[in-house]
Amino acid sequence: MKLIFLGPPGAGKGTQAAGVSAHLRVPHISTGDMFRSAIKNATPVGLEAKRYLDAGELVPDSVVIDMVRERLSMADCQNGYLLDGFPRTVEQAVALDDISVPEAVVDIQVPDERLMDRLTGRRICEKCSGTFHISKLSDPTICPVCGGRVYQRNDDQPETIMTRLHAYHAQTEPLIGYYSGQDKLSRPGENRLKVVDGDRRPEDVFRAILSALE
Ligand code: AP5
Ligand code: MG
Fold this sequence. Notes:
By secondary structure, the chain is of the alpha/beta class. The chain has a domain of 98 residues: Rossmann fold. Helices cover 45% and strands 15% of the residues. Strands 2-3-1-4-8 form a five-stranded parallel sheet. Strands 6-5-7 form a three-stranded antiparallel sheet. A hairpin with a 5-residue loop joins strand 5 and strand 6. Helix 2 packs across helix 3 and helix 4 runs parallel beside helix 5. The longest helix is centred in the C-terminal third of the chain and has 15 residues. Bound molecules: BIS(adenosine)-5'-pentaphosphate and magnesium ion. The site of magnesium ion has 4 residues, from helix 1.
């Protein structure tokens, strides 16, 4: 299955993609994770992307599209993939339809007022990459699963979160029209959009996603 997760920052794309990709046995491809890894390794893409991630703005389309094109050409993507955080502009969506047409687009919807707390409270384990909310940690520095240390993402500060939300509404939300077949650039007669309410317990969101994909 070729699948996309759409949704604002903090909607739970990464949280749900971990379980859904394992269930469907397709690779979980997060462009945000790819950029963070490129920044850590100081690759040319990382050096170019860093200032955009730090500011909470979108990396230019040409950079992201080339990176995803290369990733989707790899052997593990030939039977499907779960893209998390790509596409994020109509230009990226049109390019993806040229590279490999996704079959379904799950839009995980969560109201803005919930997202600030989710994101400022997010902690990630540096050892197992698990994502947690600080309110669920008995020790705010330790991963409850593997005992590793948890850290906070650089862009999970209130001001940067506001910029990311703004970028989402201005540049990414129009993809709802694109994938439901209502944009002038949409593939004619195709509605690939599945809307899922993400404002409930993670296990309920997981079940809702699987039932939307049936
Ligand atoms: P990216 O890493 O994709 O960040 P994002 O879209 O802002 O989304 P997040 O990862 O913050 O949220 P999420 O939906 O994955 O939520 P999560 O599951 O972690 O992108 C980062 C940057 O990279 C961008 O700003 C941009 O600069 C660049 N970039 C990436 N892709 C790009 C592209 N295509 N084009 C251009 N630039 C690009 O959960 C969040 C929190 O909520 C956690 O604490 C979690 O525990 C909690 N939570 C999850 N589910 C629930 C639930 N059901 N109930 C309560 N809490 C929950
Ligand atoms: Mg994520």
